[in-house]
Records
---
Amino acid sequence: MEDLQALLFDVDGTLADTERDGHRVAFNRAFSEWGLDWDWGVALYGQLLAVTGGKERILYYLEHFRPEFPHPDDLPRFVAELHKAKTRHYAEMLGEGAIPLRPGVKRLLAEAKEAGLRLAVATTTTPANLSALLDSSLGIDARGTFQLVAAGDVVPRKKPAPDIYVWAMDRMGLSPDRCLALEDSYNGWRSARGAGIRSVMVTVTDYTRAEDFTGATLVVDTLGEPTAPPRVLGGLLDEVGPIDVPTLRELHRLGAAHG
Ligand code: XBP
Ligand code: MG
């Protein structure tokens, strides 16, 4: 059985709970700036999250919720420019410290780096969003923490397609059996699993708590801290302390054996 060599982190929902109070608000601010009467409420946004990628999500919304909207001559350009406005609003929000890292993330990143594990990001989000998050929450840039940031449009197909995880492992010279993925959503879990990663740990959010994670190595509500351990919601362990490197090594062994 191959030892654990690398942790591949999802961003939105995993490093930070960014969707409801971050991305969703940034989308609405961009719509308002562009004079669009679109308003993505909490419940509607939960439906739209089935589609990964902000640009793809806007197109899905137009097709399924605003069929009457007169399409501009160059729809892809319209969506790309509107999404750039959204990304600007999102970066401004994070710069003001709007979204903190989830419990245990800062602790685990430091412990994993200290233990010599290779760290990478595999995310659907726009790369600038990760920089804004890390700058505002850790005061560092992504390059200081992760050996590789695989983000956004670098691959043709976003999660749940496996492309972003395959891309990341290819560039790091990693085989799936040396990796453990940390995710928050069904789309992310399926993407990592589809890339051959058998050890996947899920920290759910309010948006993803009810999704199907059958087969995931462990499902918890948070990575936990010594004063607030995680609550196990599924997977191969019944209880667990704050997620640390020894726990991840155990999850990797369990995933390899049962994944
Ligand atoms: C989550 C996503 C992203 C964000 C919005 O990414 O699907 O699209 O919702 O970010 P992940 P963008 O969970 O893989 O980190 O608008 O930049 O796409
Ligand atoms: Mg996510």
---
Amino acid sequence: MRLDQRWPAMVLGAASIAAGVAALALTRRRSDLPIPVQPGGPALADVLDAVAEPVLLVEGVTVTLANRAATTVMGAQIVGQDVREAIPHPAAAELLSDLDLGGDGAPVELKGLGPLNQRWQMRVNAIGGGRRLVHLIDQTESHAAERMRVDFVANASHELRTPLAAVRGFIETLEDAGDDAETRARFLSIMGAEALRMQRLVEDLISLSRIEAEKYRLPSDEVDMVDLAEDVHAELVAAGAGRGRDVILSLDADVPKVIGDRAQLSQVMHNLVSNAMKYGREGTPVEIALRRTGAGVRFAISDQGEGIPAKHIPRLTQRFYRVDTGRSRSLGGTGLGLAIVKHIVERHRGRLQITSEVGIGTTVAVVLPTP
Ligand code: ADP
């Protein structure tokens, strides 16, 4: 049903329904007159259809108008229905049953409404003549972001608390260890390793927050990826320790330069090679391959190792997600390496591809666009 009601000229072109609702409420409060009619203006139904969020016009408890977003979420049948059936949620029913509600009704949170079980904030504004405007604002994403933030802080604290508790425990034990030099040396070595773990974690957390802060600033330097791969390789070989000598280069000669942040791209390569060295089998090669492709430049780090079961792959770039937490920790992992990689690749407008075969090995590739 479409009402041939006219919308006040003052709200035409307003980007958000909130502005419209506020304007109506204001008009009503100021003059206590019915909604002003603007002859020749657009129909209210057309105005509401232009609003991206679900909006219902309710008379008493009957839905008399629903915009397109509302019928998409609740179905076309809601027009003419009791609004408490149209929005089948206890908190909504309670608020909508209160016909005396003025324009300042507190918003309520609704969970699990709509085809995707979204979370909504429902606002109800009285607009005079026994009519109310019901406005649903999708809160699913902001709620998920808030959840992620809370989980992140909890995870980071937990990751720090474990090595910290170990160091404190060993300090107490050392105090009681007397002069036994061998025991002292052993405990100090464990404390050193735990402190190093905390340091790695703090450094990764700082990296992550710096990268996130720069997320919307496009990099602007020209980076020679061949030169970068050779530098990373030389650093790993020079470090001497670990599996540096297993790293081999396979570089195309005609790889164009990319627009990027050299330090960040170096961090990507270091993180990926470090994972390949950690999770690849001792003595097998870790390859850094650099190729020119139709889409730009592709560099791929491949190892021969335990591989990753397919079900884990989509989650590997989540912070602190690990296939085997104990194994990652014992190898000095923080669970943040691939999250850092993902953020850097996103800042460079690139793509990250992880392919793996259990028992055979893993290839993590980054495709960067060329100018
Ligand atoms: P971590 O510090 O634990 O290595 P990352 O974020 O770098 O954290 O990686 C997340 C998880 O992904 C690792 O814990 C590991 O389970 C898995 N992973 C990453 N790279 C590889 C690889 N090359 N081979 C096998 N598993 C890998």
